[in-house]
Specification:
It is built from 2 helices and no strands. It has helices spanning 18-47, 54-70. The protein is 64% helix and 0% strand. Helix 1 (18-47) runs antiparallel to helix 2. It is elongated. The longest helix is centred in the middle third of the chain and has 30 residues, at 18-47.
């Protein structure tokens, strides 16, 4: 089966400019990094032990989240 033809007058989804996307992606990555570091510091203060297994995760997650955020518009 073929999909029905799209109406030429149907509104297309408007995406933000490249500069805006770059800035938002960087902000999302930095915010995720800040949350991860905040969680590490909080767990260090409350448990008096640094979860060493979480350090690579905290450093990698901002990249994954930023790429996922950026792919929402691709």
């Amino acid at each position: 089966m073929h999909p029905p033809p799209q109406n030429e007058r149907s509104p297309k989804r408007k995406s933000p400019s490249k500069r805006t996307l770059n800035i938002l992606t960087a902000l999302v990555g930095v915010a995720t990094l800040a949350l991860g570091i905040g969680w590490l510091v909080y767990s260090w203060i409350t448990d008096l032990e640094v979860p060493y297994f979480a350090i690579p995760l905290v450093l990698c997650m901002p990249v994954i989240v930023a790429v996922a955020f950026r792919n929402c518009w691709d």
